[in-house]
Design brief:
With 413 residues, this protein is an alpha/beta fold. The chain has a single domain, classed as Alpha-Beta Barrel (TIM Barrel), CATH 3.20.20. Helix content is 39%, strand content 12%. The longest helix has 19 residues. Its EC number is 3.4.13.-. Keywords: Dipeptidase, Hydrolase, Protease.
């Protein structure tokens, strides 16, 4: 693994200033923004786990088991079904600490470089065509800026290369199809630019499908436009994601798609009755077509409380395996660590009724309430916990990223 240099905020500020001067050479002048105390990146100095390592959870492993876990973890390809939704420089450090190979890096929320405490987002900024293009341009700049430690992973071969070189892989994804504005040909343009994973809906229903927060009596599978979107994504080589979609949309997407689809990050209603959860039937429908369900790490979705431990997440993994089988399960952390609660609620889909169903958030960031899964450096806890629960090395490799990698190879290439 190549030697890495951990940059301070001061160093990043200087580099960012240099990048602003040379931005036009990289095809964009938008980077020349006014820099702040975060060096022009997302961040929140009040949030501990932006930079602090995750808790090393005590599973009561023997020294021999700990050594085996370490060796096994270092050999794994680890793919997070939703690794982050913002770019903060310490994310790369946290991924390296955790041994993360790559992940679905979610973009197009509003502006992935502006998640600082004083930023106020407008609802119309979320999921727009402009936001998605801005974030893709910014992500390529970040890959150039941090090229010694990070790389775009646009295919399964790229993910293997990230593992080989010890770099952190970024597979661009987005969590809504609103950016299409009914123009299916935009999928082709986004594929050319590097977008690889698209979630059919966010919480709310859109022109393509029904969201997880839609009232049960109003839910449907896919619209005619939705059929066209899924079909075109299959054709161009994009992965259909249904993480925030309703069970009806998940099942219909699995039926219509000629390739496996995923539920990148969700809970299970048979475990916790909550908006961000889906049915056993939908999980089986996705798995039966070769797809994967990523167990979310949000405490309210996996434990019904804003406080839990990685044992609760492992309980959910066990439950998912019982539903989908070992080939149908992965994990999707759904981190957005620099964000404030108020910023999350600026999304048009987070109305009062949805928030009430999600639960109370006395702990924020919500990931601070998940002991042993506070940020991406926590990945070894999953390997260690699965060993404690008696999973074989082969099955651990599938859960930690092998299943997602298989689907990516089958759909994206």
């Amino acid at each position: 693994m190549p030697k890495t240099h951990k940059l301070s905020r001061r160093e990043l500020l200087a580099i960012a200033a240099q990048s602003a001067v040379g931005a036009s050479l990289m095809g964009s002048t938008a980077w020349a923004r006014e820099l702040d105390e975060y060096g022009g990146f997302s961040g929140n100095k009040n949030f501990k786990y932006i930079s602090a390592p995750a808790t090393v959870y005590d599973f009561g492993l023997t020294p021999e088991q700990e050594e085996h876990a370490k060796e096994l973890h270092e050999s794994l390809i680890i793919f997070d079904g939703l690794s982050e939704c913002t770019f903060y420089p310490e994310f790369i450090t946290n991924m390296k600490r955790g041994g993360g190979t790559s992940g679905n890096f979610s973009i197009g929320i509003s502006d992935m470089l502006r998640w600082t405490p004083d930023t106020v987002f407008k609802p119309q900024e979320w999921w727009s065509w402009e936001a998605l293009n801005r974030d893709l341009d910014a992500l390529y700049r970040m890959m150039h800026l941090f090229r010694d430690d990070a790389m775009m992973t646009l295919t399964h071969v790229d993910i293997l290369e990230a593992k080989k070189t010890g770099k952190v892989g970024f597979m661009p994804g987005t969590q809504n199809t609103k950016f299409l504005d009914d123009a299916v040909n935009r999928l082709d343009e986004m594929h050319r630019k590097g977008l690889r994973i698209i979630q059919i809906t966010y919480n709310a229903t859109n022109a393509v499908g029904a969201g997880s927060a839609e009232a049960p009596e109003n839910r449907f599978g896919l619209s005619r436009l939705g059929h066209m979107v899924v079909e075109r994504m299959n054709e161009v080589g994009m992965l259909v994601d249904t993480g925030h979609s309703s069970p009806e949309t998940q099942m219909r997407a699995a039926e219509v798609s000629t390739k496996p689809i995923v539920i990148s990050h969700a809970g299970m209603l048979s475990k916790v009755n909550q908006t961000r959860a889906t049915t056993d039937e939908a999980i089986r429908a996705v798995a039966d077509k070769g797809g994967v369900m990523g167990v979310i790490s949000t405490p309210t979705a996996i434990a019904g409380s804003d406080k839990c431990t990685v044992e609760d997440m492992l309980d959910n993994v066990d439950h998912a395996v019982n539903i989908a089988g070992i080939d149908g399960v992965g994990f999707g952390s759904d981190f957005i660590i620099p964000a404030t609660f108020e910023q999350i609620l600026s999304a048009p889909e987070w109305d009062e009724e949805v928030v009430a169903n999600i639960g109370e958030f006395e702990v924020w960031p919500w990931s601070d309430g998940h002991v042993g899964w506070e940020n991406n450096s926590a990945y070894p806890n999953m390997t260690r916990g699965l060993i404690k629960r008696g999973y074989s090395d082969e099955d651990i490799a599938k859960i930690m990223g092998g299943n997602f990698l298989r689907v990516i190879k089958d759909t994206i290439g």
